[in-house]
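1st attempt posting a full record on here, be nice pls
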Amino acid sequence: MAGACSTDEPDLPTTTLMTPTAALKVFMPVRAPRIRLVCCSYAGGNASAYAHWHAGLPDDVEVCAVELPGRGARFREPPLRTMGALADHVMASLLPLADAGIVLFGHSMGGALALELASRLVDVGMPPSALAVSGCAAPHLPSRRRRRLHDLPRDELVQELNLLEGLPAGMLDADAFIDLFLPTIRADLECRETWRAAIRAVPVPVHVLAGADDALVALDDLGEWQRYSSLPIRVRVFGGEHFFIDSHRAEVLAHLREILGEPPAPAGGGAVKRASASTAERIA
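the predicted structure (as tokens):
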């Protein structure tokens, strides 16, 4: 049975109908939003990764966090195992949201999902206002991992994930926790590792966010994202490793405010480097 998103303000109507299988979660509904920021999480992640982002964004932006089967409030549902299935699933919740502009954001595997969603939205005449991919290499590039992970035995998979720092700190610390969530992590890795994206330049502004010390994404290759947009891309490098969106959250949200149409407050420091193929900036 469909129901409205829960909110502490009962007089404020929610902007997204939620059902037991809905793919989007809105933590702070906005009346008549100007833009919806649709956030896709990393492998094994859930919507709660973006639970507090609304506090650092303009008041007229509604944050819609993707909640996929197999995690969070949908933990008892079996996870999906292909990128196409993930994108089709989320699209069913995106299509009714044509009353406001859409900006897509995805971190790590979520960047791949966000790219798939952008392509589908273009095809149905609802091109997003922008696509922001974070901690995510251009999909046509070879993986920096030594081998495929999703079909490794349990202990080898856990060891590889710890070595690669591909999951948030502490996520693999307890055996009981590992066994609870590893099937979903494995399914997400299968989605990413078996995905073959078509190289297609969509008419959407693409913003590439990266961590200066991310072992999974080569800074020299960030310009390869230009193949996926017919418009000049913009690249920004933050301090931090793969999960710089947590360690440098304030700077990331300031950059997103700029993408969403509100310039960030002036801040001192930070060297800026510009590239010919795209605009590249570094935040120390």
